[in-house]
Amino acid sequence: MKLLFFDDYRLGVMKGDNVVDVSAAVSDIPNLEPQQLIRGLIENFASYRQNIGSAVRSADGVPVSSVRVRPPLPKPSNIACMAVNYMEDGTREEPARMQVFQKSPNAIIGPGDTMVLPDAPATVFEGEAELALVIGKKATKVAAADAFDYIFGYTNFIDGSARGLGGNSVFHAMKSRDTFAPIGPTIVTADEISDPQNLQIQLRNNGDLMQNFNTDDMAHKIGTCIEYITSIHSLDAGDIVATGTNHRGLHPFQGGDVIELEAEGLGRLVVNIRDDLKRTWPRETRLEREEKGLQPVPPQASGKYSK
Questions:
Q1: Of 14, 145, 240, 249, which has the fewest CB atoms closer than 10 Å, so is most exposed?
Q2: What is the 3-state secondary structure (H, E, C) of 25-75?
Q3: Range of 130's domain?
Q4: Does residue 271 sit within a domain?
Q5: Is residue 307 a part of any domain in this protein?
Q6: What's the pLDDT at 235?
Q7: pTM for the full model?
């Protein structure tokens, strides 16, 4: 099942290219905001699945192109992100040490929304294509072998980064900016993804394929990630674990870009990039620069903060 929010955060299910409004089937879930609704549904999905399925079967829905799709998890309590979690197509001799950072819930945006590059002296702005796990129930000190019992579903995730800001809280300044966590378009329930450890992930910028890798290249596999994170703090239903990226296709995000991310089976997430300062960088991936013997991050070409 593919769950989403649309228009004024009505709950829907994708049926082909249409969205079916299933709000009536979950009207008794107490909530004051959309995140409470989706969390309540996730926690009690077994009780609601039959009624939702009946609602979907009995209605045609409306074309998804005719509605405004919202982020399927508007404000999760935790967004835990893996850092340096790929073997980079075998170019790393061994996995990097386990690293996790948090993003602010205010970083969340959805399909058709805009990632805004801030007025800050970053060396470059990038976005990392990632598979995100959606937690299904409270998870505390979960063993890796049991981790999939705690996964409700999956969604696309872009980890926005403002590189090179330094300071005392590097990850906070770099990763936790407003609009820097696009997700969606739906939550795909776990039963629809036979092997999340073997999914192709592709990111396009203005139609050009920039990132293209498989989740089988993860250094620390999904179970290990959940085990480590929940050894430090609990995760709740509706929380997100972003599993990292292969960095070789990373490249500058710039104003006017249209970004499309598609993890296999999860649909396509499309977002826009805005930069009021109109900064520019060379259109090169990290891999392309490394193959030329250059530093992986290109120097800023023009605009405020260029040198």
A1: 145
A2: HHCCCCCCCHHHHHHHHHHCHHHHHHHHHHHHHCCCCEEHHHCCEECCCCC
A3: 79-291
A4: yes
A5: no
A6: 98
A7: 0.97
Please compute the mean of the pLDDT values over residues 30-41 and round it to a whole number: 97
- 288 secondary structure, DSSP code: H
Q: 66 and 83, same structural domain?
A: no
> If you search the block for the tokens 């972003």, which residue do you land on?
242
Residue with tokens 């990373």: 250
Helix (H) or strand (E) run with residue 214 in it: strand 208-214
The structural domain count of the chain equals 2
Cα 268 from Cα 251, distance rounded (Å) = 20
pLDDT one-digit tens code per residue, 237-295: 999 999 999 999 999 999 999 999 999 999 999 999 999 999 999 999 999 999 999 99
pLDDT band at 18 (very low <50, low <70, confident <90, very high): very high
Residue 247 lies in a domain: yes
Domain CATH for 228: 3.90.850.10
